[in-house]
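Internal tracking record. Fields below are filled automatically when a chain is submitted to the structure queue. Please do not edit lines marked as system-generated. If the sequence contains nonstandard residues, flag them in the REMARKS field before resubmitting.
Queue: standard
Priority: normal
Entity type: single polypeptide chain
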Amino acid sequence: MIQVCKNLSVGTTSDCFYDEKEDYAVVHACKTPCHQRKLHYNRNLPPTHPNYLIYEEENHLYLNIVDMDRILSKFADPIFLKAIEFIEKNISTKNILIHCNLGQSRSPAIALVYMAKNELITNSSYTDAISEFVKNGQGLLCGV
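SYSTEM-GENERATED OUTPUT FOLLOWS
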């Protein structure tokens, strides 16, 4: 788990937990195993299911998101918007863990968008935002 700024960390499936810890809120940015486990399905959930993309319960947000070369905006937009809303709702009172399977794509992407939106890193260009985000992950900007 890497803390990228105050109360916000990015991690992998090995950092994942399902129980309630009153000082944590978790964004589970992976279909397998988290979304599948929580909603009790194996392969795919029908697109008509009310929690097909997103399921929120207490301090946990489960996202049906996988790594793809191209994520269609009809799926990415609601997923990212809900993740940012969940983080903003909880970050002042809890530590936020955003995790995906390997901690290299979906979870850092959500953290990057949150930080750029809230001007914790530059949002002037993608390249500059990535550069600052990487520095944050190394504890250089957030005083971690």
